[in-house]
């Protein structure tokens, strides 16, 4: 009986090691911050503003050439307006908007990737001001001659009110008239990464 239990345990240990040995590990590609970017655009009734925000870090995970995971962190204290409007930049960093002093980082974590080849749909968790929501958007993944990879999402639509940013929102303040800012803003993300 003792020999039988020992044999079963030995087989279980061998099976466990076999599973570990044959489980494919994803390759991690580190994002090159000098070649990568995040741009943004926000609209109001009378026009729009656009600019950039710097990346702090990022990585993309691949199984072969299939994107399986990853994410990035944005430094919200670096929000810039393309028109160099210092007052707007200060306001975007204030509590009315992104509260950059209290919440200096926003991050995105990939949870699911659908599609094959260059065109995929990515679903993940976006955290802004310590509030996390799931978002889905189309992206393109291209392998470069230097063995780096470029992942691009040209239009990620974000509803700011889902992150507690209600300043001049017509859906929150119905009597605001034409003096409103649209709830949705967009970002475009380009990540260039190498193993």
UniProtKB/TrEMBL annotation:
Gene3D superfamilies: Lipid/polyisoprenoid-binding, YceI-like. Pfam families: YceI. The keyword Signal applies. PANTHER family: PROTEIN YCEI (PTHR34406). Residues 1-23 form the signal peptide. Residues 28-194 form the Lipid/polyisoprenoid-binding YceI-like domain. It comes from Pedobacter boryungensis. This is YceI family protein. Keywords: Signal. The keyword Signal applies.
